[in-house]
Design goal:
Blueprint (H helix, E strand, L loop, with lengths): L2 H48 L4 H15 L9 E4 L4 E6 L3 E2 L8 E6 L3 E2 L5 E3 L4 E10 L9 E11 L2 E4 L2 E6 L2 E4 L4 H5 L4 H13 L2 H21 L3 E5 L4 E6 L3 E4 L2
Antiparallel strand pairs: 1-14, 2-4, 2-13, 3-12, 4-7, 5-6, 7-8, 8-9, 10-13, 11-12
Helix pairs in contact: 4-5
């Protein structure tokens, strides 16, 4: 190989080496660019995802909007009302008898069970006090007649506060009780013993006959008095009184 040929070969090898280096550098730059693009892509994707709220957050936001649209609960009632015609029972606080009671006397009773309105609210709790007066207290004039014990309800006390009540007494658990023959009962028959004594004197024409007649007359008068004795109307302690409201009753809830 001549010197000239050697020089041309060396030049060709150098050119080839330079071309290879240039291509390698271009490939490296291309790889670096691709790597940078791949590295930046997640950042752009993450930014895009942050613009959309997660599913749970969206549901919470919607629930909060729905909650905000709900109207506020109604205020608690300040009073309750029993309608006209509401019936309930009370128990007499003490025994009431026509033997001692008189018109105008006061009486008390306690509510037997909770009295509720149509909505189920307790308006008058059990144990509340009912107050009233006695209108009539007349014993029966004899065992075959009936006496009279009439009551009127005036108020009810609930949680320490009194309210006027308009109610009728539908019935009472009363009993009839004999008091025995009294002087007043004997007076009803017009002195049977004296009449018997006069009859005995006229028939027997002596003192003995008058005594016998007097005893017979007294016995007859006693029988008549017994048949004419007073019978009392008695409402025992704890006896039921059945009431019905004649007008609506409003009671404070507190």
């Amino acid at each position: 190989m001549t010197w000239n040929q050697w020089m041309r070969l060396s030049a060709a090898l150098c050119a080839a080496s330079l071309l290879g280096c240039a291509k390698g550098e271009q490939a490296s730059q291309s790889a670096d660019s691709t790597a940078r693009n791949l590295t930046l892509a997640p950042t752009e994707s993450t930014a895009a995802m942050k613009d959309v709220p997660a599913g749970g957050t969206a549901q919470k936001a919607e629930a909060n909007k729905t909650e905000a649209k709900k109207p506020p609960p109604p205020p608690a009632p300040t009073s309750f009302t029993l309608a006209t015609g509401t019936a309930f029972a009370v128990s007499a606080g003490d025994s009431i008898t026509t033997r001692s009671a008189k018109a105008g006397d006061a009486f008390t009773a306690s509510v037997s069970e909770d009295v509720r309105d149509r909505g189920g609210h307790v308006v008058i709790p059990a144990g509340s006090t009912i107050s009233g007066t006695i209108l009539h207290a007349d014993p029966a004039p004899n065992p075959r007649a009936s006496g009279k014990l009439e009551l009127s309800v005036t108020s009810v006390t609930v949680r320490g506060k009194s309210y006027p009540v308009s109610a009728t007494v539908e019935s009472k658990d009363t009993v009839m009780q004999g008091r025995g023959v009294t002087t007043a009962d004997a007076a009803k028959v017009g002195g049977g013993a004296a009449i018997g004594a006069i009859a005995g004197k006229l028939i027997g024409k002596d003192t003995k006959g008058a005594i016998i007649g007097g005893l017979a007359g007294a016995a007859a008068g006693g029988v008549a008095a017994n048949r004419s004795r007073d019978i009392d109307v008695v409402l025992p302690k704890g006896g039921a009184i059945h009431l019905r409201l004649a007008s609506a009753l409003t009671v404070s809830a507190h």
